[in-house]
Design goal:
The structure holds 2 protein chains of 2 kinds. Chain A is mainly α. Helices cover 80% and strands 0% of the residues of chain A. In chain A, α4 (71-82) runs parallel beside α8 (169-175), α5 packs across α6 (138-148) and α7 runs antiparallel to α10 (198-230). In chain A, 39% of the residues are buried. Chain B has helices spanning 45-53, 84-89, 97-110, 126-140, 156-171, 183-189, 207-212, 217-225; strands at 5-16, 19-30, 34-38, 60-65, 70-73, 144-148, 175-179, 192-197, 200-206. Classes of the chains: A mainly alpha, B alpha/beta. Chain A binds chain B through residues 126-127, 129-136, 140, 144-145, 147-151, 229-231, and chain B through 50, 53, 55, 70-72, 74, 76, 78, 80-83, 90-91, 93, 120-123, 136, 140. Chain B: Belongs to the ABC transporter superfamily. Chain B: This is ATP-binding cassette domain-containing protein.
Chain lengths: 231, 236
């Protein structure tokens, strides 16, 4: 046991440039995907929280269900869409970091949208009448409510980041786990496990957890500071 | 009654959750007046304000509201998690930035919160939050100010500031509709009183007459049920 631990630590401290490149790619892909998820998910969630139209309840239910989208299925669908004979085949995205970003963004967007819908709906209870009474247009009302719940949306962003960076099924299918190009932390861990190099797989796992912790701690510190300033 | 009322509700009915809240309500509010709407809990006072503001659509009847620029101060101030200044600026989207900043500064001064503009509004005390909500209403420059129990839970100092600004706005020509259970406040501010009971206007007339010699049994019952009060300054 101690020997295994020593081996893991040794591998951890001797991580070479390839591993750092894998970590950087994972971070880059996941952060970009979360960014896209926020840009698409926040307006969608706010719209569903504020707008009233027939079928809205079903749309919210569908969105909530999409939070649990199976990554492998997302990967498969994107594979079909991006493959040479697929509708977006000419873009040549399959087996590129771009395809992995698209896959993770597809997983992150419903999560962000559903959490946004919930917190904006709560904000609407105490702010809705006042904002309408001030004569704000519907988009400005939604904007004010999004601003009001911005600290809660940080949690949505972190949840989306956690889902994206820890995901393997979709990135494996559309990225192909190509060494030095589309290999991420999760696909590398999977590969090393299959090869039987468990100490390296565990060392990579620790790096992955470290990345997630650093991002979460940084965001938590920023959020606490902002909450202290703005209440 | 004014020949050209600012607000006219005719035969307005409204049910919420299967309960009749407004029951063939008729009322007229004169332009430039300060009208207090009083009555027991559940009489339909707050709902009437919301119907006037267009926040609730009645099931039947007609609602005519002349003034276009309206402001509504709710019993519980609804403020966003931002600075006090940003909360006021929220209502001034159409103004150029320098004019908006000047208006915000003046609004804060009106409610004696000049030093608190950069502070988080949600960290204000209840009284300060309500003063801020009123400052935001003032900043809009409304022709019609709707107040739903604006000083409930406020201390006398904050109440005095709120009433002072409402009086100033009324003197400047703003039509004010005030819902309040504070009959001293009604006596201080209102020139006209409407008594609501079970969604109907059971009495409507000069404040002094209704407060001191109500004519209907519903008005008498409501006023008799209140705790003793003494108007500081009788309404003129």
């Amino acid at each position: 046991m101690m020997q295994t631990l020593q081996e893991i630590l040794s591998r951890l401290f001797s991580l070479d440039r390839d591993v750092l490149a894998i970590a950087w790619l994972s971070l880059r892909v996941s952060l970009t995907a979360v960014g896209i998820g926020l840009v698409l998910g926040i307006p969608l969630g706010a719209f569903l929280a504020v707008a009233r139209f027939p079928g809205r309840g079903a749309a919210v239910g569908l969105l909530n269900a999409f939070m649990g989208l199976p990554p492998v299925l997302v990967g498969l669908v994107l594979y079909l869409v991006l493959s040479r004979s697929g509708p977006l085949g000419p873009l040549g995205l399959l087996f590129t970091p771009g395809a992995m970003i698209a896959a993770q963004a597809t997983l992150a967007t419903p999560l962000v949208a559903a959490l946004t819908q919930q917190v904006v709906a709560d904000a609407r209870v105490h702010l809705g009448e006042q904002l309408r009474s001030l004569g704000l247009s519907a988009p400005r009302q939604a904007g004010a409510m999004i601003y009001d719940v911005r600290f809660s949306l940080v949690t949505a962003a972190l949840a989306a980041f956690g889902r994206a960076i820890s995901e393997i099924g979709a990135v494996l299918v559309v990225g192909g786990n190509i060494d030095g190009y589309t290999r991420t932390m999760t696909t590398a861990i999977s590969l090393e496990t299959q090869k039987g190099d468990l100490s390296l797989a565990l060392a990579l796992g620790l790096v992955l957890i470290g990345l997630v912790l650093v991002v979460n701690v940084a965001v938590a510190v920023l959020r606490r500071h902002a909450a202290r300033v703005y209440g | 009654m004014s020949a050209t009322p600012a607000i006219r509700l005719q035969d307005v009915t409204l049910s919420l959750d299967g309960r009749t809240v407004l029951d063939h309500l008729h009322l007229e509010i004169a332009s430039g007046s300060v009208t207090a709407v009083i009555g027991p809990n559940g009489a339909g006072k707050s709902v009437t304000l919301r119907v006037i503001d267009g926040l609730l659509q009645p099931d039947g009847g007609t609602v005519q509201v002349g003034p276009h620029r309206r402001a509504f101060v709710f019993q519980r101030p609804a403020l966003i998690r931002a600075t006090a200044a940003a909360n006021i600026a929220l209502a001034l989207g159409g103004l150029p930035r320098p004019a908006r900043a000047a208006r915000v500064e003046e609004a804060l001064a009106r409610v004696r919160l000049s030093e608190r503009g950069r502070d988080a509004a949600t960290r204000f005390s209840g009284g300060e939050q309500q003063r801020l909500a009123l400052a935001r209403a003032w900043a809009v420059g409304p022709d019609l100010l709707l107040l739903d129990e604006p000083t409930a839970n406020l201390d006398p100092a904050s109440t005095e500031i709120v009433e002072g600004l409402v009086s100033a706005m009324a003197r400047a020509g703003t039509t004010v509709v005030l819902v309040s259970h504070n009959l001293g406040q009604v006596a201080r501010l209102a020139d006209t009183v409407i008594v609501l009971a079970s969604g109907r206007a059971v009495e409507h007339g000069p404040a002094r007459q209704i407060l001191f010699s109500p004519r209907t049994s519903e008005s008498r019952a409501y006023l008799a049920g209140e705790l003793p009060w003494t108007p500081f300054v009788a309404a003129s």
